[in-house]
Input
Amino acid sequence: MKETKNVYVSPALPLKALRTVLGVSLFFFLFYIVVGYFIWKLPFPTPGDLLEIFLVTGAGVGLGVLFSRFWPLPPEMGMERVVRTLLLVIPALGLGIALQTFLQGAQAQRALYFIFALAAWMGSGHIVRIETAQTETAQTEMAPTEAARSATARHATD
Output
């Protein structure tokens, strides 16, 4: 566990990010093979298409991890998480459209912009901000409670 300025960064961050890239890529590989080819009658994805999906997913997760270095995921749910997500995903959609235009041209067969934004959102959850004051307060408040419970449990067994 590596702690810097109340931020938790997993020591296995590169492996977790790679696992996210592989998982999202595998989902979209299967999606475009099963749904795209068999149901929507799109052309069967070539290895080049699958490579594009993998590269776009990797770039999206990389953007998400980079974003979370500057603005880590807050520990509690609330408006800050909503604003953080919007400030990540909306520009990621724009960057994804630019990336898709660069990779596939004007007539795209795959929704790479959506894959890029989704991967960026999923990659942004790897670095989490922790609240040390709340943690210490909770531990000091819990300590007497735990002691009382164990004393009660000992008294009940006697």
Remarks:
- The chain has a mean pLDDT of 84.
- DSSP finds five helices and three strands in the chain.
- Residues 2-157 form one domain.
